[in-house]
Amino acid sequence: xxxxxxxxxxxxxxxxxxxxxxxxxxxxxxxxxxxxxxxxxxxxxxxxxxxxxxxxxxxxxxxxxxxxxxxxxxxxxxxxxxxxxxxxxxxxxxxxxxxxxxxxxxxxxxxxxxxxxxxxxxxxxxxxxxxxxxxxxxxxxxxxxxxxxxxxxxxxxxxxxxxxxxxxxxxxxxxxxxxxxxxxxxxxxxxxxxxxxxxxxxxxxxxxxxxxxxxxxxxxxxxxxxxxxxxxxxxxxxxxxxxxxxxxxxxxxxxxxxxxxxxxxxxxxxxxxxxxxxxxxxxxxxxxxxxxxxxxxxxxxxxxxxxxxxxxxxxxxxxxxxxxxxxxxxxxxxxxxxxxxxxxxxxxxxxxxxxxxxxxxxxxxxxxxxxxxxxxxxxxxxxxxxxxxxxxxxxxxxxxxxxxxxxxxxxxxxxxxxxxxxxxxxxxxxxxxxxxxxxxxxxxxxxxxxxxxxxxxxxxxxxxxxxx
Length: 468
Ligand SMILES: Cc1cc2nc3c(=O)[nH]c(=O)nc-3n(C[C@H](O)[C@H](O)[C@H](O)COP(=O)(O)OP(=O)(O)OC[C@H]3O[C@@H](n4cnc5c(N)ncnc54)[C@H](O)[C@@H]3O)c2cc1C
Hints:
elongated; Flavocytochrome C3, Chain A, domain 1; eight-stranded mixed β-sheet
């Protein structure tokens, strides 16, 4: 759809969770709003995510007897972030997480499984998964609400330049309309004026190989990513051109649960995250031994795998698979997850020394029975049991670039901060394009929480921006 509007109150760049949340809040406050999305589909990486969201204090936790609080979630965020998190921003995420989840479930109507899961680095189960196991259900609900609010959403509309007025307030954008990704020279330049503000919610840069490699030289084109190809850094660079301060750009998260036997995010993470980490073990095929606490945060897990210089094997038994209750048929069909009738078959399948594997499993099983992991101090879940019952399930695991913790510096009102530590008038940001909230490592399911919390804050701030 060609962009026919040349002036609104609030312009939102990007149609993922953060951008759509901002647009809803601004529109509900009576502003005229448009959303500009460069691709020919809405939803960004949000749409291909699992949609998992973390929050303390939800009724599913109460039903499962889990005690949690915003303070505990905040402490977990800081622990995984190794204290590099901007504490005031991390606190806002933890304190508004419950409200964000209830907004998605009760106001927008997304259906979640009535269960609560734990991912590495969370000290208690606090993660909820939509029944579709996809972020698309929330994207669809947000788009539906925006249509009801009569907010125009444009596809093929690429933000090229942020324009400032004589007071240095961001007051307009130059876009390429009818843009087509990776096709040069197509589209028409247009200028759209923002009476109140521009919100950038353009996501992370996991697929921008040159930019990510400049931050972390190890992440060249040989390292796969779970992100879609459009996850690039042009909006961060444009904000930097007008003085925005980028923070912690080299903090790039690798997803340790990925499989080298399929492209992109794939199907394997469901098995790894929900079954292997809480109820199974990871084995280095070169030694036949465990090598890490499988429930530690993603950064530690990915580093522990990378130093081995070859994929590792995640293993769980059929009791764990049945108890976790996820449908693994897609992984099994693709051959990403394989089944074995006994440990000998499994050891042969991955070239593992049988004696060493047997020893590792027996030791782990003893520890599970005792309720304490002597080797790596993994939290033994109350429902976890020893690895005993065939068929045994296993998967090769090798990290892929997944999430960029660094990005634009923002303050508590989601204002973009410049290199002199002052807000850039008229410019707000939310979601993965921002940096500093998660510090060294983002906990699973906390990106979506953060997108909703800060997307909504950005929308409210933009709507009430008194600069006009
Ligand atoms: C496969 C996968 C699974 C995940 N699962 C989870 C999960 O279960 N739980 C969780 O918490 N996190 C998960 N994450 C992370 C999380 O989904 C993302 O961090 C989050 O969705 C990012 O949302 P966003 O709104 O910031 O950006 P996005 O959803 O990526 O949206 C940004 C949008 O901006 C557009 N854009 C970019 N540049 C421009 C431009 N120049 N002009 C116009 N538009 C532009 C992009 O095309 C894109 O549509 C997952 C990530 C991936 C890749």
